[in-house]
Amino acid sequence: MHAFYASLRNELARLAAQPKTRWFLAASLLLPLGLSLLSSRLQGGGGLSALLSGDPYLALLGGYTAFVLPLFLFMTAADQFPGEREEGTMVLTLLRPVSRAKIYGAKVAAAAVYTGLQLLLLAVVSLLCSLLLPGSAPAVLDPLSFFRAAVAAWAAMLAVGAVGAALVQLTGRATTGLALCLVLYGALKLLPLLLPGLSVWSLFSYTGWHALWLGDGVPAVRLWNLSLLLLAYSIIAYTGGLAIFNKKSF
């Protein structure tokens, strides 16, 4: 396990040095603050205030899991795999006395850590804003629910990240890999509008499943079944991505 943790520290440092990672983390700090300030100023008014009449955290978390975090995961995967191959750094990584399975696991885990960090920042800043900002919209959620929603959102993003890590390896360039992920994600997001029956089986239909964990309206059996579905997608995508990585020549 020492080799895995060493690889994970290396991948975390590599991602931390990239401007896009810092920009995404900064957005996770600033967006909830800005949305809470806007919500507090518009309380009691019309128009846009109607959209912010609920909890700003829920509105922001829904947008993050639908657009921001998938984009971050796809960009990160494109840089980690075909991007490093283009730059020639993947060969240096494979020269280390670490198995390909641990290298692949460290890359996926590093992306998961920064995804979780963004969700944690969203929850903490949103909770502080709801408690401290005068005149801000009253929080619909209790403090524990803030973090329960973040953990549920993180679980869904793990599955999306595993799919992205597998897909980008089907291409030879980072830009092509990112484009493939975005096109497929967009198509599967829109497909249920044409064929609603397929939404039950589409992983990307559950990016906002954190909403199902709030309150008592969803039966425990349904939550359990959806959890198993996400776990199955994660295992299949991770195993497929690892198989591609093991066979790929760099």
From TrEMBL:
<feature type="transmembrane region" description="Helical">
    <location>
        <begin position="21"/>
        <end position="38"/>
    </location>
</feature>
<feature type="transmembrane region" description="Helical">
    <location>
        <begin position="58"/>
        <end position="78"/>
    </location>
</feature>
<protein>
    <submittedName>
        <fullName>Uncharacterized protein</fullName>
    </submittedName>
</protein>
<feature type="transmembrane region" description="Helical">
    <location>
        <begin position="224"/>
        <end position="245"/>
    </location>
</feature>
<feature type="transmembrane region" description="Helical">
    <location>
        <begin position="145"/>
        <end position="168"/>
    </location>
</feature>
<keyword id="KW-0472">Membrane</keyword>
<keyword id="KW-0812">Transmembrane</keyword>
<dbReference type="Pfam" id="PF12679">
    <property type="entry name" value="ABC2_membrane_2"/>
</dbReference>
<keyword id="KW-1133">Transmembrane helix</keyword>
<dbReference type="GO" id="GO:0140359">
    <property type="term" value="F:ABC-type transporter activity"/>
</dbReference>
<dbReference type="GO" id="GO:0005886">
    <property type="term" value="C:plasma membrane"/>
</dbReference>
<feature type="transmembrane region" description="Helical">
    <location>
        <begin position="180"/>
        <end position="204"/>
    </location>
</feature>
<feature type="transmembrane region" description="Helical">
    <location>
        <begin position="108"/>
        <end position="133"/>
    </location>
</feature>
